TrEMBL record:
This is Heterokaryon incompatibility domain-containing protein. Pfam families: HET (PF06985). It comes from the Eukaryota. It comes from Lojkania enalia. Transmembrane segments: none annotated. Residues 36-138 form the Heterokaryon incompatibility domain. InterPro entries: HET (IPR010730), HetReg/Transcr_Mod (IPR052895).
Amino acid sequence: KKEIRVLQVLPSSDFNATVHATLHILSFDDSNPIAYNALSYCWLQDKSDRQVSELEAKQPTILLDGITKDVSNNLEAALRYIRKESEEVRLWANAVCINQDDDKEKSWQIQMMGDIYRGAELVIVWLGRESEDSDLAMD
């Protein structure tokens, strides 16, 4: 089956609160698929040129279906900024939505990435948190 997992990021009015999410299965074979956004981001982040914030000082985690899951600093930051105060956000993020411990699944899902991004209502590109000179690049 052409299926993917999609994160349902739960709302929070507290930016610093742990990100809570649940996983749901979405079928591309369904004639009435669930709308979702896709996240494109860098898995790794170079922190050598900036001071580590309090949020980045510890191993970042999210609460996924009630279980604590380690994630990268960059993914955790993206989820915090994407999360809304009063409504859930459906989001595909490869590090969480693909079982990284299952090579067979990873291979299958990687082959579907074109479909995943094309099927998204919106593709969000996360470049990372603002830094001292990031305004220069945006200008």
